[in-house]
Amino acid sequence: MKYEYLSHGLRNVLKTRNITYKDIALKMEMSESGVKKMLTANDISYNKLTSILDLLELKLEDLTPLAIKPYKKLSEEQERFFIKNPKHFNFFIQLHHYKMKSENLMKANSKLSKAKMSKFLDDLEKIKIIRQLDGKMHSLLEDGFITSEYFNTRYRTNYGVVIEKLNDIESGQWKSWMFEGFGTFSLSHNSALELRNQLQSLFDEFSNRSEREKKFYESKDLVDIGTLLLNIPMKIQDVFPII
């Protein structure tokens, strides 16, 4: 991972522990301005990074989860387009889910015509969300993206389908216990249990990360998140419909 992403987490550790650039400068026998430049640069030598981590009694793997993610932000033009054309946004989400393979997306959405598919792809290319090369789709936001609060307020995911699934469970009409999430799985009982156990391991990992990040971040920099895992049969085209 690039140092410019790690440095964000490193500076948060210093801030939380009330360690100043001057404190680091004294211990490393450097000038305060030199330390500031080092901690805000796009790169750093391995020896200097190791020295700072030693001073903080940290390992590199402790710092990695705190690194800022290199997410791109949707431009105002892109957000305006998606707000006006929400099904294009759903199409883009589905396209990512199907690993940019339009044939898989079309198979999952049997009523989607080739003409409509081409229109979606052309429109997304015009706003520089995807690029078509050699007959293949390439996302320009493959590392993830973030949106503005305005966009989050205006755009609403179709959670009505989730409520319907919950109502089915309450009324006893729900027959399947298989976890499908945003995809379709046909698993043996053992594999289904393994999936459940791995998801529990994931929750445990983030629970531990939560405790660790409470020590490294100030409370105002933390986001309180509650997660509820529901094993209900659901497909991504139900939540992000395009037709």
What's the arrangement of strands in the largest beta sheet? 1-4
Share of helix among residues? 55-70%
User: Largest beta sheet, briefly?
Assistant: 2 strands, parallel
The overall pLDDT average reads: 80
Low-confidence runs: 175-183
- Overall, the morphology is globular
End-to-end Cα distance, whole Å, is 39 Å
Number of strand elements:
4
> How would you classify the helix and strand content by structural class?
mainly alpha
User: What is the string of SSEs from the N terminus onward?
Assistant: HHHHHEHHHHEEEHHHH
State which percent range the strand residues make up: under 5%
Instruction: Give the number of domains.
Output: 3
Number of helices: 13
- What value does the Rg take, in angstroms? 23 Å
Describe this structure in words.
The protein is mainly α and 243 residues long. The protein folds into 3 domains: 3-66, 434 Repressor (Amino-terminal Domain); 72-150; 158-239, no CATH class. The protein has 13 helices and 4 strands. It starts with a helix and ends with a helix.
Write the SSE topology.
Layout (H helix, E strand, L loop, with lengths): L2 H14 L4 H8 L3 H8 L6 H10 L4 H4 L8 E2 L2 H9 L1 H12 L4 H7 L5 H13 L3 E4 L2 E4 L5 E2 L2 H6 L5 H12 L17 H28 L19 H4 L4
Short description:
The protein has a two-stranded parallel sheet with strand order 1-4. It has a two-stranded antiparallel ribbon with strand order 2-3.
Key features of this structure:
13 helices, 5% strand, mainly alpha, 434 Repressor (Amino-terminal Domain), two-stranded parallel sheet, 243 residues, single chain, 3 domains, two-stranded antiparallel ribbon
